[in-house]
Amino acid sequence: MNPINVIKVGGGVVEDAAALSRLLSDFAVLPGAKVLVHGGGRSATRMAERLGVETRMVGGRRITDAAMLDIVTMVYGGLVNKQVVAGLQQQGLNAVGLTGADMNIIRSHRRPLRDGIDYGWVGDVDHVDNNALRRLIDDGFVPVIAPLTHDGQGHILNTNADTIASEVACALARDCDVTLTFCFEKRGVLRDADDESSAISVIDASAFQRLQAEGIVSGGMIPKLENAFAALRRGVREVVITRADHLDGEGGTRIVASV
Amino acid sequence: MNPINVIKVGGGVVEDAAALSRLLSDFAVLPGAKVLVHGGGRSATRMAERLGVETRMVGGRRITDAAMLDIVTMVYGGLVNKQVVAGLQQQGLNAVGLTGADMNIIRSHRRPLRDGIDYGWVGDVDHVDNNALRRLIDDGFVPVIAPLTHDGQGHILNTNADTIASEVACALARDCDVTLTFCFEKRGVLRDADDESSAISVIDASAFQRLQAEGIVSGGMIPKLENAFAALRRGVREVVITRADHLDGEGGTRIVASV
Protein backbone atom coordinates (compact mmCIF):
# COMPACT_ATOMS: atom_id res chain seq x y z
CA MET A 1 0.00 0.00 0.00
CA ASN A 2 1.13 3.54 -0.66
CA PRO A 3 2.57 5.31 2.35
CA ILE A 4 1.00 8.69 3.17
CA ASN A 5 1.89 11.11 5.93
CA VAL A 6 -0.97 13.14 7.35
CA ILE A 7 0.45 15.96 9.44
CA LYS A 8 -1.56 18.22 11.68
CA VAL A 9 -0.06 21.51 12.82
CA GLY A 10 -1.75 23.82 15.26
CA GLY A 11 -2.35 27.50 15.01
CA GLY A 12 0.64 28.43 17.14
CA VAL A 13 2.97 27.26 14.40
CA VAL A 14 1.24 28.58 11.28
CA GLU A 15 0.72 31.95 12.93
CA ASP A 16 4.34 32.62 13.75
CA ALA A 17 6.38 33.67 10.72
CA ALA A 18 9.64 32.03 11.81
CA ALA A 19 7.95 28.81 12.99
CA LEU A 20 5.87 28.67 9.80
CA SER A 21 8.91 29.12 7.62
CA ARG A 22 10.71 26.30 9.41
CA LEU A 23 7.62 24.08 9.23
CA LEU A 24 7.30 24.61 5.49
CA SER A 25 10.91 23.67 4.77
CA ASP A 26 10.71 20.63 7.06
CA PHE A 27 7.41 19.55 5.52
CA ALA A 28 8.80 20.00 2.01
CA VAL A 29 11.64 17.53 2.57
CA LEU A 30 9.48 14.82 4.18
CA PRO A 31 9.67 11.95 1.72
CA GLY A 32 6.61 10.57 -0.07
CA ALA A 33 2.98 11.53 -0.30
CA LYS A 34 1.67 13.93 2.31
CA VAL A 35 -1.26 15.97 3.49
CA LEU A 36 -1.11 18.99 5.79
CA VAL A 37 -4.00 19.87 8.09
CA HIS A 38 -3.74 23.20 9.89
CA GLY A 39 -5.48 25.02 12.67
CA GLY A 40 -5.63 28.75 13.18
CA GLY A 41 -7.62 29.28 16.35
CA ARG A 42 -5.38 31.95 17.84
CA SER A 43 -5.55 34.04 14.67
CA ALA A 44 -9.33 33.65 14.65
CA THR A 45 -9.52 34.77 18.27
CA ARG A 46 -7.28 37.74 17.55
CA MET A 47 -9.32 38.70 14.48
CA ALA A 48 -12.53 38.36 16.51
CA GLU A 49 -11.10 40.74 19.10
CA ARG A 50 -10.21 43.28 16.42
CA LEU A 51 -13.73 43.02 15.01
CA GLY A 52 -15.35 43.24 18.43
CA VAL A 53 -16.76 39.72 18.23
CA GLU A 54 -16.73 37.79 21.49
CA THR A 55 -14.91 34.45 21.54
CA ARG A 56 -16.73 31.84 23.62
CA MET A 57 -15.18 28.44 24.25
CA VAL A 58 -16.78 25.42 25.93
CA GLY A 59 -14.46 22.55 26.81
CA GLY A 60 -11.84 23.88 24.43
CA ARG A 61 -14.33 24.10 21.56
CA ARG A 62 -15.29 27.36 19.90
CA ILE A 63 -18.93 28.40 19.95
CA THR A 64 -19.47 29.46 16.36
CA ASP A 65 -22.28 31.93 15.83
CA ALA A 66 -22.80 33.56 12.42
CA ALA A 67 -20.25 36.33 13.05
CA MET A 68 -17.66 33.83 14.28
CA LEU A 69 -18.35 31.56 11.29
CA ASP A 70 -17.44 34.42 8.95
CA ILE A 71 -14.26 34.99 10.93
CA VAL A 72 -13.10 31.35 10.88
CA THR A 73 -14.04 31.05 7.20
CA MET A 74 -11.86 34.10 6.45
CA VAL A 75 -8.99 33.22 8.73
CA TYR A 76 -8.77 29.43 8.28
CA GLY A 77 -9.93 29.18 4.65
CA GLY A 78 -8.32 32.40 3.46
CA LEU A 79 -5.49 33.91 5.44
CA VAL A 80 -3.84 30.86 7.01
CA ASN A 81 -4.58 28.39 4.22
CA LYS A 82 -3.34 30.59 1.42
CA GLN A 83 -0.20 31.67 3.27
CA VAL A 84 0.67 28.01 3.79
CA VAL A 85 -0.11 27.14 0.16
CA ALA A 86 1.97 30.02 -1.19
CA GLY A 87 4.79 29.06 1.17
CA LEU A 88 4.76 25.44 0.01
CA GLN A 89 4.72 26.55 -3.62
CA GLN A 90 7.85 28.52 -2.84
CA GLN A 91 9.35 25.25 -1.54
CA GLY A 92 8.52 23.61 -4.87
CA LEU A 93 5.55 21.62 -3.57
CA ASN A 94 2.42 21.81 -5.69
CA ALA A 95 0.05 22.51 -2.80
CA VAL A 96 -3.68 22.92 -3.13
CA GLY A 97 -5.67 24.51 -0.31
CA LEU A 98 -8.96 22.88 0.51
CA THR A 99 -11.85 23.19 2.89
CA GLY A 100 -14.29 20.32 3.16
CA ALA A 101 -16.55 22.14 0.69
CA ASP A 102 -13.91 22.14 -2.06
CA MET A 103 -14.34 19.04 -4.21
CA ASN A 104 -16.90 18.00 -1.59
CA ILE A 105 -14.07 16.31 0.29
CA ILE A 106 -15.53 16.55 3.81
CA ARG A 107 -19.24 16.46 4.49
CA SER A 108 -20.53 17.13 7.95
CA HIS A 109 -23.75 17.97 9.74
CA ARG A 110 -24.37 20.77 12.15
CA ARG A 111 -23.82 19.51 15.66
CA PRO A 112 -27.08 19.08 17.56
CA LEU A 113 -27.40 20.45 21.09
CA ARG A 114 -25.09 18.61 23.48
CA ASP A 115 -25.87 18.82 27.17
CA GLY A 116 -27.96 21.83 26.27
CA ILE A 117 -25.02 23.56 24.59
CA ASP A 118 -25.54 25.04 21.13
CA TYR A 119 -22.14 25.06 19.47
CA GLY A 120 -23.58 27.02 16.54
CA TRP A 121 -22.13 26.47 13.07
CA VAL A 122 -19.95 23.56 14.11
CA GLY A 123 -19.84 20.45 11.95
CA ASP A 124 -19.42 16.81 12.96
CA VAL A 125 -17.88 14.85 10.11
CA ASP A 126 -20.04 12.39 8.18
CA HIS A 127 -17.86 11.49 5.24
CA VAL A 128 -14.41 12.10 3.78
CA ASP A 129 -14.01 11.49 0.05
CA ASN A 130 -10.77 9.53 0.12
CA ASN A 131 -10.96 8.92 -3.64
CA ALA A 132 -10.87 12.63 -4.46
CA LEU A 133 -7.98 13.12 -2.03
CA ARG A 134 -6.15 10.10 -3.41
CA ARG A 135 -6.54 11.37 -6.97
CA LEU A 136 -5.00 14.72 -6.01
CA ILE A 137 -2.15 13.02 -4.17
CA ASP A 138 -1.55 10.55 -7.02
CA ASP A 139 -1.41 13.51 -9.43
CA GLY A 140 1.41 14.98 -7.34
CA PHE A 141 -0.56 17.63 -5.46
CA VAL A 142 -0.19 18.24 -1.73
CA PRO A 143 -3.57 18.89 -0.08
CA VAL A 144 -3.49 21.62 2.59
CA ILE A 145 -6.71 21.30 4.55
CA ALA A 146 -8.32 24.06 6.60
CA PRO A 147 -10.53 23.06 9.56
CA LEU A 148 -13.78 23.84 7.75
CA THR A 149 -16.35 21.42 6.38
CA HIS A 150 -19.76 21.80 4.72
CA ASP A 151 -23.21 20.30 5.08
CA GLY A 152 -24.21 20.12 1.41
CA GLN A 153 -26.95 22.64 2.17
CA GLY A 154 -24.79 25.64 1.37
CA HIS A 155 -23.30 26.08 4.83
CA ILE A 156 -19.67 26.11 5.80
CA LEU A 157 -19.18 24.54 9.24
CA ASN A 158 -16.35 24.96 11.73
CA THR A 159 -14.69 21.62 12.53
CA ASN A 160 -11.85 20.91 14.93
CA ALA A 161 -8.52 20.51 13.11
CA ASP A 162 -7.48 17.41 15.14
CA THR A 163 -10.77 15.79 14.13
CA ILE A 164 -10.22 16.69 10.46
CA ALA A 165 -6.72 15.20 10.60
CA SER A 166 -8.01 11.97 12.18
CA GLU A 167 -10.94 11.63 9.78
CA VAL A 168 -8.75 12.29 6.74
CA ALA A 169 -6.15 9.80 7.98
CA CYS A 170 -8.77 7.11 8.65
CA ALA A 171 -10.40 7.65 5.24
CA LEU A 172 -7.04 7.42 3.44
CA ALA A 173 -6.20 4.31 5.50
CA ARG A 174 -8.88 2.40 3.54
CA ASP A 175 -6.28 1.87 0.82
CA CYS A 176 -3.06 3.53 1.98
CA ASP A 177 -0.48 2.98 4.68
CA VAL A 178 -1.08 6.08 6.80
CA THR A 179 1.07 7.72 9.46
CA LEU A 180 -0.82 10.44 11.32
CA THR A 181 1.35 13.03 13.05
CA PHE A 182 0.05 15.53 15.56
CA CYS A 183 2.39 18.43 16.23
CA PHE A 184 1.99 20.03 19.58
CA GLU A 185 4.04 22.16 21.93
CA LYS A 186 5.94 19.28 23.59
CA ARG A 187 8.37 16.78 22.09
CA GLY A 188 5.90 13.92 22.70
CA VAL A 189 4.26 12.15 25.63
CA LEU A 190 6.73 13.05 28.37
CA ARG A 191 7.59 10.89 31.37
CA ASP A 192 8.51 14.09 33.15
CA ALA A 193 6.43 17.09 32.08
CA ASP A 194 9.40 19.39 32.72
CA ASP A 195 11.90 17.40 30.70
CA GLU A 196 11.58 17.62 26.93
CA SER A 197 14.07 14.80 26.53
CA SER A 198 11.83 12.39 28.48
CA ALA A 199 9.44 11.59 25.60
CA ILE A 200 8.28 7.98 25.65
CA SER A 201 9.32 6.60 22.30
CA VAL A 202 6.55 4.01 21.78
CA ILE A 203 3.18 3.52 23.47
CA ASP A 204 0.92 0.59 22.68
CA ALA A 205 -2.46 -0.23 24.22
CA SER A 206 -1.06 -2.09 27.22
CA ALA A 207 1.56 0.58 27.88
CA PHE A 208 -1.22 3.19 27.76
CA GLN A 209 -3.08 1.33 30.54
CA ARG A 210 0.09 1.11 32.61
CA LEU A 211 1.05 4.76 32.09
CA GLN A 212 -2.40 5.87 33.19
CA ALA A 213 -2.30 3.63 36.28
CA GLU A 214 1.10 5.09 37.16
CA GLY A 215 -0.23 8.63 36.69
CA ILE A 216 2.40 9.41 34.05
CA VAL A 217 -0.28 10.02 31.44
CA SER A 218 -3.10 12.20 32.75
CA GLY A 219 -5.32 15.17 31.99
CA GLY A 220 -5.62 16.36 28.40
CA MET A 221 -3.18 13.73 27.19
CA ILE A 222 -5.69 10.93 27.89
CA PRO A 223 -8.31 11.96 25.28
CA LYS A 224 -5.46 12.70 22.84
CA LEU A 225 -4.18 9.14 23.19
CA GLU A 226 -7.69 7.68 23.17
CA ASN A 227 -8.24 9.42 19.82
CA ALA A 228 -4.93 8.05 18.58
CA PHE A 229 -5.93 4.48 19.47
CA ALA A 230 -9.32 5.04 17.82
CA ALA A 231 -7.50 6.03 14.61
CA LEU A 232 -5.36 2.89 14.84
CA ARG A 233 -8.51 0.76 15.18
CA ARG A 234 -9.80 2.41 11.99
CA GLY A 235 -6.75 1.37 10.02
CA VAL A 236 -4.13 4.07 10.57
CA ARG A 237 -0.76 2.34 10.92
CA GLU A 238 0.86 4.68 13.38
CA VAL A 239 0.11 7.93 15.20
CA VAL A 240 3.04 10.17 16.09
CA ILE A 241 2.95 12.92 18.69
CA THR A 242 5.82 15.33 18.28
CA ARG A 243 6.81 18.97 18.19
CA ALA A 244 6.41 20.96 14.98
CA ASP A 245 10.16 21.46 14.75
CA HIS A 246 10.56 17.67 14.71
CA LEU A 247 8.11 16.85 11.94
CA ASP A 248 9.90 13.61 11.14
CA GLY A 249 8.83 12.33 14.56
CA GLU A 250 12.43 11.83 15.66
CA GLY A 251 12.48 11.97 19.45
CA GLY A 252 8.68 12.05 19.60
CA THR A 253 6.17 9.44 20.70
CA ARG A 254 4.84 6.73 18.38
CA ILE A 255 1.45 5.29 19.23
CA VAL A 256 0.94 1.80 17.83
CA ALA A 257 -1.66 -0.92 18.36
CA SER A 258 0.95 -3.28 19.75
CA VAL A 259 4.71 -3.28 19.87
CA MET B 1 -12.96 21.85 -29.44
CA ASN B 2 -14.63 21.64 -26.04
CA PRO B 3 -16.85 24.60 -25.20
CA ILE B 4 -16.12 26.30 -21.86
CA ASN B 5 -17.88 29.22 -20.25
CA VAL B 6 -15.73 31.51 -18.14
CA ILE B 7 -17.99 33.76 -16.10
CA LYS B 8 -16.84 36.74 -14.08
CA VAL B 9 -19.11 38.14 -11.39
CA GLY B 10 -18.33 41.23 -9.42
CA GLY B 11 -18.40 41.79 -5.72
CA GLY B 12 -21.83 43.43 -5.76
CA VAL B 13 -23.41 40.10 -6.67
CA VAL B 14 -21.50 37.69 -4.46
CA GLU B 15 -21.92 40.01 -1.48
CA ASP B 16 -25.70 40.20 -1.60
CA ALA B 17 -27.39 37.07 -0.25
CA ALA B 18 -30.39 37.18 -2.60
CA ALA B 19 -28.33 38.06 -5.68
CA LEU B 20 -25.78 35.38 -4.81
CA SER B 21 -28.45 32.75 -4.38
CA ARG B 22 -29.95 33.62 -7.77
CA LEU B 23 -26.49 33.64 -9.38
CA LEU B 24 -25.68 30.20 -8.01
CA SER B 25 -28.90 28.63 -9.35
CA ASP B 26 -28.46 30.32 -12.73
CA PHE B 27 -24.82 29.29 -12.93
CA ALA B 28 -25.69 25.71 -11.96
CA VAL B 29 -28.04 25.27 -14.91
CA LEU B 30 -25.67 26.74 -17.52
CA PRO B 31 -24.91 23.80 -19.79
CA GLY B 32 -21.41 22.43 -20.26
CA ALA B 33 -18.03 23.09 -18.70
CA LYS B 34 -17.65 26.29 -16.73
CA VAL B 35 -15.39 28.37 -14.56
CA LEU B 36 -16.49 31.11 -12.16
CA VAL B 37 -14.22 34.05 -11.33
CA HIS B 38 -15.41 36.32 -8.54
CA GLY B 39 -14.55 39.70 -7.11
CA GLY B 40 -15.20 40.89 -3.61
CA GLY B 41 -13.88 44.42 -3.45
CA ARG B 42 -16.78 45.89 -1.57
CA SER B 43 -16.53 43.25 1.16
CA ALA B 44 -12.81 43.90 1.38
CA THR B 45 -13.40 47.63 1.72
CA ARG B 46 -16.04 47.04 4.39
CA MET B 47 -13.77 44.64 6.29
CA ALA B 48 -10.92 47.17 6.05
CA GLU B 49 -13.18 49.82 7.56
CA ARG B 50 -14.13 47.52 10.43
CA LEU B 51 -10.45 46.82 11.05
CA GLY B 52 -9.46 50.47 10.81
CA VAL B 53 -7.36 49.91 7.68
CA GLU B 54 -7.53 52.69 5.11
CA THR B 55 -8.65 51.79 1.58
CA ARG B 56 -6.72 53.67 -1.09
CA MET B 57 -7.64 53.35 -4.75
CA VAL B 58 -5.77 54.74 -7.75
CA GLY B 59 -7.58 54.61 -11.09
CA GLY B 60 -10.02 52.05 -9.72
CA ARG B 61 -7.20 49.80 -8.49
CA ARG B 62 -6.62 49.01 -4.84
CA ILE B 63 -3.33 49.95 -3.26
CA THR B 64 -2.43 46.77 -1.40
CA ASP B 65 -0.12 47.27 1.56
CA ALA B 66 0.61 44.37 3.93
CA ALA B 67 -2.50 44.99 6.06
CA MET B 68 -4.71 45.20 2.97
CA LEU B 69 -3.15 42.05 1.53
CA ASP B 70 -4.19 40.12 4.65
CA ILE B 71 -7.69 41.51 4.26
CA VAL B 72 -8.11 40.59 0.59
CA THR B 73 -6.56 37.17 1.23
CA MET B 74 -9.14 36.57 3.96
CA VAL B 75 -12.10 38.06 2.18
CA TYR B 76 -11.52 36.89 -1.40
CA GLY B 77 -9.77 33.58 -0.69
CA GLY B 78 -11.76 32.69 2.41
CA LEU B 79 -15.10 34.33 2.98
CA VAL B 80 -16.36 34.97 -0.54
CA ASN B 81 -14.72 31.98 -2.23
CA LYS B 82 -15.90 29.42 0.31
CA GLN B 83 -19.44 30.80 0.45
CA VAL B 84 -19.65 30.46 -3.34
CA VAL B 85 -18.15 26.97 -3.28
CA ALA B 86 -20.52 25.77 -0.53
CA GLY B 87 -23.44 27.32 -2.42
CA LEU B 88 -22.50 25.56 -5.65
CA GLN B 89 -22.10 22.26 -3.80
CA GLN B 90 -25.66 22.77 -2.57
CA GLN B 91 -26.67 23.12 -6.23
CA GLY B 92 -25.03 19.79 -6.98
CA LEU B 93 -21.96 21.25 -8.69
CA ASN B 94 -18.64 19.86 -7.57
CA ALA B 95 -16.95 23.23 -7.11
CA VAL B 96 -13.36 23.72 -6.05
CA GLY B 97 -12.20 27.10 -4.81
CA LEU B 98 -8.81 28.24 -6.02
CA THR B 99 -6.46 31.16 -5.78
CA GLY B 100 -3.57 31.38 -8.22
CA ALA B 101 -1.35 29.77 -5.57
CA ASP B 102 -3.46 26.61 -5.40
CA MET B 103 -2.10 24.06 -7.87
CA ASN B 104 0.15 26.91 -9.03
CA ILE B 105 -2.56 27.85 -11.51
CA ILE B 106 -1.75 31.56 -11.79
CA ARG B 107 1.75 32.92 -11.43
CA SER B 108 2.33 36.63 -11.32
CA HIS B 109 4.99 39.12 -10.37
CA ARG B 110 4.67 42.08 -8.09
CA ARG B 111 3.84 45.15 -10.13
CA PRO B 112 6.78 47.55 -10.44
CA LEU B 113 6.24 51.25 -9.81
CA ARG B 114 3.99 52.78 -12.48
CA ASP B 115 4.12 56.53 -12.93
CA GLY B 116 5.70 56.61 -9.50
CA ILE B 117 2.77 54.72 -7.94
CA ASP B 118 3.54 51.76 -5.70
CA TYR B 119 0.49 49.49 -5.87
CA GLY B 120 1.98 47.32 -3.14
CA TRP B 121 1.22 43.58 -3.14
CA VAL B 122 -0.48 43.63 -6.53
CA GLY B 123 0.36 40.96 -9.08
CA ASP B 124 0.51 41.20 -12.86
CA VAL B 125 -0.14 37.80 -14.40
CA ASP B 126 2.74 35.91 -16.03
CA HIS B 127 1.26 32.48 -16.61
CA VAL B 128 -1.97 30.51 -16.26
CA ASP B 129 -1.64 26.73 -16.11
CA ASN B 130 -4.39 25.80 -18.54
CA ASN B 131 -3.50 22.11 -18.28
CA ALA B 132 -4.18 21.97 -14.55
CA LEU B 133 -7.45 23.84 -15.05
CA ARG B 134 -8.43 21.59 -17.96
CA ARG B 135 -7.73 18.49 -15.92
CA LEU B 136 -10.02 19.72 -13.15
CA ILE B 137 -12.73 20.62 -15.63
CA ASP B 138 -12.39 17.33 -17.50
CA ASP B 139 -12.71 15.50 -14.17
CA GLY B 140 -16.06 17.23 -13.63
CA PHE B 141 -14.97 19.90 -11.18
CA VAL B 142 -16.04 23.54 -11.42
CA PRO B 143 -13.15 25.91 -10.60
CA VAL B 144 -14.19 28.96 -8.57
CA ILE B 145 -11.32 31.41 -8.77
CA ALA B 146 -10.63 34.21 -6.30
CA PRO B 147 -8.77 37.32 -7.53
CA LEU B 148 -5.48 36.36 -5.89
CA THR B 149 -2.31 35.08 -7.51
CA HIS B 150 1.17 34.22 -6.25
CA ASP B 151 4.75 34.96 -7.22
CA GLY B 152 6.35 31.60 -6.45
CA GLN B 153 8.39 33.33 -3.76
CA GLY B 154 5.85 32.68 -1.05
CA HIS B 155 3.77 35.80 -1.60
CA ILE B 156 0.09 36.02 -2.35
CA LEU B 157 -0.63 38.96 -4.67
CA ASN B 158 -3.85 40.88 -5.25
CA THR B 159 -4.93 40.73 -8.90
CA ASN B 160 -7.93 42.36 -10.55
CA ALA B 161 -10.78 39.88 -11.08
CA ASP B 162 -11.50 41.07 -14.67
CA THR B 163 -7.85 40.43 -15.48
CA ILE B 164 -7.98 36.96 -13.92
CA ALA B 165 -11.09 36.14 -15.95
CA SER B 166 -9.46 37.33 -19.20
CA GLU B 167 -6.19 35.53 -18.54
CA VAL B 168 -7.95 32.29 -17.60
CA ALA B 169 -10.19 32.52 -20.68
CA CYS B 170 -7.22 33.19 -23.00
CA ALA B 171 -5.22 30.31 -21.49
CA LEU B 172 -8.12 27.88 -21.87
CA ALA B 173 -8.66 29.14 -25.44
CA ARG B 174 -5.40 27.43 -26.41
CA ASP B 175 -7.39 24.22 -26.78
CA CYS B 176 -11.01 25.00 -25.95
CA ASP B 177 -13.82 27.01 -27.45
CA VAL B 178 -14.17 29.73 -24.82
CA THR B 179 -16.98 32.16 -24.13
CA LEU B 180 -15.98 34.82 -21.61
CA THR B 181 -18.86 36.54 -19.83
CA PHE B 182 -18.50 39.68 -17.74
CA CYS B 183 -21.42 40.37 -15.47
CA PHE B 184 -21.89 43.97 -14.56
CA GLU B 185 -24.66 46.23 -13.34
CA LYS B 186 -26.19 46.93 -16.79
CA ARG B 187 -27.82 44.56 -19.25
CA GLY B 188 -24.97 45.11 -21.74
CA VAL B 189 -23.50 47.93 -23.82
CA LEU B 190 -26.48 50.26 -23.91
CA ARG B 191 -27.39 52.60 -26.78
CA ASP B 192 -29.19 54.72 -24.21
CA ALA B 193 -27.58 54.65 -20.77
CA ASP B 194 -30.99 55.10 -19.15
CA ASP B 195 -32.72 52.30 -21.04
CA GLU B 196 -31.86 48.77 -19.98
CA SER B 197 -33.66 47.38 -23.01
CA SER B 198 -31.33 49.26 -25.39
CA ALA B 199 -28.40 46.80 -25.14
CA ILE B 200 -26.59 46.44 -28.47
CA SER B 201 -26.80 42.74 -29.25
CA VAL B 202 -23.54 42.31 -31.20
CA ILE B 203 -20.44 44.47 -31.50
CA ASP B 204 -17.55 43.62 -33.80
CA ALA B 205 -14.36 45.61 -34.38
CA SER B 206 -15.83 47.89 -37.04
CA ALA B 207 -19.00 48.52 -35.02
CA PHE B 208 -16.80 49.40 -32.05
CA GLN B 209 -15.06 52.11 -34.13
CA ARG B 210 -18.41 53.45 -35.29
CA LEU B 211 -19.97 53.43 -31.80
CA GLN B 212 -17.01 55.36 -30.41
CA ALA B 213 -17.19 57.90 -33.24
CA GLU B 214 -20.90 58.36 -32.56
CA GLY B 215 -20.20 58.82 -28.85
CA ILE B 216 -22.49 55.91 -27.95
CA VAL B 217 -19.60 54.03 -26.39
CA SER B 218 -17.49 56.21 -24.12
CA GLY B 219 -15.81 56.47 -20.75
CA GLY B 220 -15.17 53.30 -18.80
CA MET B 221 -16.82 51.16 -21.45
CA ILE B 222 -13.95 51.81 -23.90
CA PRO B 223 -11.21 49.99 -21.94
CA LYS B 224 -13.73 47.23 -21.14
CA LEU B 225 -14.34 46.68 -24.86
CA GLU B 226 -10.67 47.06 -25.72
CA ASN B 227 -9.94 44.27 -23.23
CA ALA B 228 -12.69 42.18 -24.82
CA PHE B 229 -11.15 42.58 -28.29
CA ALA B 230 -7.73 41.76 -26.87
CA ALA B 231 -9.17 38.49 -25.50
CA LEU B 232 -10.67 37.73 -28.94
CA ARG B 233 -7.27 38.28 -30.55
CA ARG B 234 -5.83 35.78 -28.06
CA GLY B 235 -8.27 33.09 -29.15
CA VAL B 236 -11.43 33.58 -27.07
CA ARG B 237 -14.42 32.95 -29.35
CA GLU B 238 -16.83 35.44 -27.85
CA VAL B 239 -17.01 37.93 -25.01
CA VAL B 240 -20.42 38.61 -23.50
CA ILE B 241 -21.29 41.65 -21.38
CA THR B 242 -24.48 41.12 -19.44
CA ARG B 243 -26.13 41.50 -16.08
CA ALA B 244 -25.62 38.85 -13.39
CA ASP B 245 -29.32 37.99 -13.47
CA HIS B 246 -28.95 37.18 -17.18
CA LEU B 247 -25.98 34.84 -17.01
CA ASP B 248 -26.96 33.13 -20.23
CA GLY B 249 -26.21 36.43 -22.01
CA GLU B 250 -29.78 36.69 -23.31
CA GLY B 251 -30.46 40.35 -23.97
CA GLY B 252 -26.82 41.24 -23.33
CA THR B 253 -24.05 42.32 -25.69
CA ARG B 254 -21.88 39.84 -27.58
CA ILE B 255 -18.43 41.07 -28.61
CA VAL B 256 -17.04 39.17 -31.60
CA ALA B 257 -14.08 39.70 -33.93
CA SER B 258 -16.37 40.10 -36.93
CA VAL B 259 -20.06 39.46 -37.52
Descriptive overview:
Two copies of one chain form a homodimer. Chain A is built from eight helices and 14 strands. Chain A has 259 residues and is α/β, with parallel strands linked by helices. Chain A folds into two domains: 2-184, Acetylglutamate kinase-like (Carbamate kinase); 187-259, no CATH class. In chain A, strands 5-8-2-1-11-13-14-12 form an eight-stranded mixed beta sheet, with helices on both faces. A two-stranded antiparallel ribbon of chain A has the order 3-4. The first copy, chain A, has a two-stranded antiparallel ribbon with strand order 6-7. In chain A, helix 3 (41-50) crosses helix 4 and helix 6 packs parallel to helix 8 (221-233). Chain A starts with a strand and ends with a strand. Chain A binds chain B through residues 47, 50-51, 70, 73-79, 81-83, 85-87, 89-90, 94-99, 101-104, 135, 139, 141, 148, 150, 152-156, and chain B through 47, 50-51, 70, 73-79, 81-83, 85-87, 89-90, 94-99, 101-104, 135, 139, 141, 148, 150, 152-156.
